[in-house]
Design goal:
The structure is a single chain. The chain has 931 residues and is α+β, with helices and mostly antiparallel strands.
Length: 931
């Protein structure tokens, strides 16, 4: 009976029963033929109505399902937009490296940070290193090597250039991800900290200048320090300080270490007045003068040729004023290209002009008191001076602005009144030790404002000594960095906590789980990983809306957290999924009590928006060290257990105890099946021709193993070779392939077909101590086969332990007359080592490069490189993966005439090869390259 007939019969029976119930009788009465036909017609009508009702219900369910799918898709798009916006606001981009292939992935914000796009640049580890400044390049390379070797994370700050040549400061971190105990991914961030680092450098620059102002360093050295510091802060800038002479009518040289000497001499003594260059005009007008293009600006009419000889194209000049408003000189920034200043540039030259004023005025005063007064007047940093006993003897206005205390309130008092209570005795002992031994201390210090609020400072304390080297007092310079610290805290929170519930997110969970595993290992204690998925949440979210769903998640998250102990961690890792890490389990049943409480709290009804809502939870649990896996694997095991709990009826938990056994069983069964197939001779060889595309010569075939399974049909090698890769079975199968290939050569010879065959040899088989002896025995067993007709292919990614030993073994095989080829060349990590040390005659370019070289310039470059290496080392080269005529047209002019691939012939049974060989002709487009 067909499915359609079965359905019709079902509806007929339902209609008959319904009609019978309608007539309220146990059975239908006997009817005559006409009445029976009428009754049958009624039944069929009713059956059609029932069938139509069911179709309508199915159509409604399909409509609801499609609507739900659209809502989920829109939610995913919204989440992606929010994540991208968050990364852009925080200037935090993501990066991930796949360790086995060393391939990189950048997020959109990472591309923006580097001033490029995915279309313009494909992330590359080696090319990425070249963008770092030398010192940073060495640090990031060392950190990456250490992370790849050990899996330990790093968090460092580096300097590098963007693709537009802009120098930036980055904070980069990474975390390691393992699969089956093997490091597979390094995931981290790039955070653009250029603004903060620039602020720190300017702060350090200001401190440096303020500190040397308190010494007796000559004015020209101070001015030179200002100029050199600014040139370091602004790459490409050339700075100059000019001083007014005693008459106030001319400008004289102050500091310009990187302007050409002839230019410095020419402007030394230049007049102050209108249209006398940027500096002369700024000093005359008493206001900033910005000349963006010297070649066209009227102020530079008389100095344009001189500026051209010096290679100067822009000049921004700021007058330097004394405390009384007198013009002391000018501070100028030159550029070698026409340039417009940004807001930060204007702030910088204003600030440097004030610093220069401090230096110039210092040279005019006679006492250190006058110097201190000048510093206090102009500095942006808070300053206070203490005597040897630590009592405050002077403060500036910025001190009062930051601390809230007036000068009168603190004079004679000890700075302890600012103490925050956050630093221990060891901290202050170290501070005083540095002061006594080095004469200064620099670092972060938390203090308390007069109103009781805490604030963070970056402070430098210097000992002021007399001519005999005796300390007389201490000068404290500090800046309020509370906004910077708050910004850092916010970024840390965004990176490590879930925005909705405030619980740790997946990143922080991974870190805490790794710490918990380490602690458990050290203390020989147990821990539990619980994977929680809410049952029925989706239905509530769909029925009452996302706002109600979010409120429900927040309330349940708080309930679950309150159930746990102080040292346990609960994290939200997405949607309605949570993970709990319980450490220090005291007994085998401790986790079960917590599991029962978690189930109870999750299932307790909750009143939200006048609606009584109820969900439940399915929980999967795994215990460490009984489950001796790494952090990622523990999470996967708990996740698997959770699905078992959900399949068992929900609102319950399941302890992981089967997945690993199942994996071992599956592996064992696969090996047993392959062993059986080898014994039953179910393996066969297919052969793919290798040709000279230009001449049309068939140079041989490659033997490719297939499994002729009695139930599943022809199974490709990717399905079974990885299972036996490191198992002795791979050696037995490899021996069979070589013997079968030699036998097939004999069979073809009997047909008059002389056909060399290449065979793939695995690392385990090749490194067997008796490989050469075994090969000699196989050749002797086939005396009609010339040894040169057998070529052995070594996969370049094979993990050959001892290259020297393998090279000796290969030379022993070559002495027998066989040849060697390196397969998949370019995909491994030791191409040049293999090329240099292994006696292989032929290099096979991996098909992944050949297949995409028509569209991918990088793949084309790799193909050219391999051909060049083959020529340089006097090796033949053959291209795999030639699928089209266009591939051959590109390869032949590059010097690669040998090829194999679907564009020539697919792998075929041995019986089909003679007929193919007789009919094979190269494409005319390839023959045109003849001669």
């Amino acid at each position: 009976m067909s499915a359609s007939s079965a359905n019709q019969s079902e509806f007929y029976q339902r209609a008959s029963r319904q009609l019978q119930q309608t007539l309220r009788s146990g059975r239908l009465p006997d009817l005559d033929e006409s009445e029976q036909l009428a009754r049958e017609l009624d039944i069929y009508r009713l059956a059609l109505q029932l069938q139509q009702q069911e179709l309508d219900q199915l159509e409604q369910k399909l409509t609801e399902f499609a609507s739900h799918e659209r809502e989920q898709l829109e939610a995913l798009r919204t989440n992606a937009r929010i994540l991208e916006a968050s990364q852009s606001i925080a200037k935090v981009g993501g990066v991930e490296m796949h360790v086995p292939t060393r391939s990189l992935y950048w997020t959109a914000e990472t591309y923006r940070i580097h001033d490029t796009t995915p279309e313009e640049f494909t992330p590359s580890l080696d090319e990425g290193f070249s963008m770092y400044l030398p010192g940073s390049r060495e640090r990031i390379a060392q950190a990456m090597r250490h992370a790849i070797e050990t899996g330990e994370v790093f968090d460092i700050e580096v300097e590098k250039y963007t693709f537009k040549g802009r120098k930036i400061d980055l904070r980069t971190t990474c975390t390691a991800h393992y699969e089956n105990g093997t490091l597979v991914r390094l995931t981290g961030i790039y955070q653009d900290i250029t603004e903060r680092k620039q602020a720190e450098r300017r702060y350090q620059h200001h401190n440096h200048i303020l500190e040397i102002l308190l010494t007796k360093i000559p004015l020209d050295e101070v001015l030179r320090s200002i100029v050199c510091d600014v040139e370091e802060l602004v790459p490409g800038a050339i700075c100059s300080i000019l001083l007014t002479d005693e008459s106030g009518t001319h400008l004289t040289h102050g500091a310009a270490p990187h302007l050409p000497e002839f230019y410095v001499k020419a402007i030394n003594g230049a007049s102050i007045g209108p249209a006398t260059g940027s500096c002369g005009t700024a000093a005359f007008l008493g206001e900033r003068v910005i000349v963006e293009d010297i070649d066209t600006h009227p102020y530079w009419r008389d100095y344009r040729e001189l500026a051209a000889q010096a290679g100067l194209r822009a000049c921004w000049s700021q007058p330097i004023f004394s405390a009384q408003g007198k013009v002391l000189g000018t501070f100028a920034i030159y550029h070698r290209e026409p340039s417009s200043p940004q807001v930060e540039d204007l702030r910088l030259i204003e600030s440097e002009a004030r610093l220069s004023a401090l230096a110039i005025e210092q040279s005019h005063v006679e006492t250190r008191l006058q110097l201190a007064a000048s510093v206090f007047t102009h500095a942006r940093e808070g300053i206070f001076i203490t005597d040897l006993l630590g009592n405050i003897i002077e403060v500036n206005q910025i001190f009062s602005d930051i601390t809230g205390y007036t000068r009168e309130e603190v004079i004679g008092k000890n700075p302890r009144l600012l103490k925050s209570g956050l630093h221990g005795q060891e901290f202050y002992a170290s501070l005083w030790h540095d002061l006594e031994q080095k004469g200064y201390w620099h670092g972060e210090l938390w203090n308390r404002h007069k109103n009781g609020k805490l604030y963070a400072t970056m402070m430098t304390i210097s000992a002021v000594q007399d001519g005999l080297g005796h300390t007389q007092s201490y000068v404290n310079l500090f800046t309020d960095i509370t906004p910077i610290k708050e910004h850092q805290r916010q970024l840390e929170y965004i990176a490590h906590y879930d925005a909705l519930t405030g619980l740790p997110n997946r990143v922080l969970l991974a870190d805490r789980l790794k710490q918990a595993i380490s602690h458990s290992h050290r203390q020989n204690a147990a821990l539990a990983v619980l994977y929680i998925d809410l049952d029925g949440f989706k239905a509530i979210n769909d029925q009452y809306g996302h706002d109600t769903g979010d409120q429900l998640l927040v309330n349940i998250a708080h309930r679950l957290k309150a159930t746990l102990r102080e040292g346990d961690t609960i994290a939200r890792i997405g949607g309605d999924e949570f993970v709990v890490v319980m450490t220090g389990l005291e007994g085998p049943k401790t986790h079960e009590l917590v599991l029962e409480r978690l189930l109870h709290e999750a299932a307790t009804p909750l009143m939200l928006n006048e609606q009584l809502l109820q969900v439940s939870a399915s929980i999967g649990a795994t215990l460490y060290p009984q489950d001796a896996a790494d952090a990622d694997q523990l999470l996967r095991h708990a996740d698997q257990a959770m699905y078992i709990a959900k399949q068992a009826g929900k609102n319950g938990y399941h302890l992981f105890d089967v997945a690993k056994d199942m994996a071992v069983k599956t592996q064992r069964e696969s090996l047993e099946h392959i062993r059986s197939a080898l014994d039953k001779r179910e393996f066969v060889l297919f052969y793919q021709p290798k040709v000279n595309m230009r001449s049309g010569e068939i140079i041989g075939v490659e033997a490719l193993v297939r499994w002729q399974h009695p139930q599943q049909g022809l199974i490709p090698p990717i399905k079974f070779l990885p299972v036996i890769e490191d198992h002795p079975l791979s050696i037995e199968l490899g021996d069979w392939v070589i013997d079968e290939a030699l036998s097939q050569i004999e069979r073809w010879q009997a047909l008059g077909l002389q056909m060399p065959v290449s065979v793939n040899v695995g690392a385990l088989q090749l490194q067997r101590s008796d490989f050469a002896a075994r090969l000699a025995e196989q050749l002797l067993a086939h005396p009609q086969v010339p040894p040169a007709f057998l070529e052995l292919e070594i996969v370049e990614t094979s993990a050959l332990k001892d290259i020297a030993e393998v090279a000796d073994l290969m030379r022993a095989c070559c002495a027998l007359g066989v040849h060697f080829a390196v397969d998949d060349f370019g995909t491994g990590y030791s191409s040049l080592t293999y090329l240099k040390r292994l006696p292989a005659d032929l290099l096979k370019i991996d098909q992944t490069f050949v297949r995409d070289m028509l569209d991918d310039p990088d793949d084309l470059a790799i193909v050219k490189g391999v051909i060049g290496l083959a020529n340089a080392f006097h090796r033949r080269v053959i291209a795999e993966g030639v699928e089209t005529i266009a591939h051959g047209e590109l390869l032949i002019p590059l010097g690669c005439e040998l090829a194999q691939g679907y564009g020539i012939a697919r792998p075929m049974p041995a019986s089909d090869l003679p007929r193919w060989a007789a009919q094979w002709q190269p494409d005319p487009a390839w023959r045109k390259f003849t001669g």
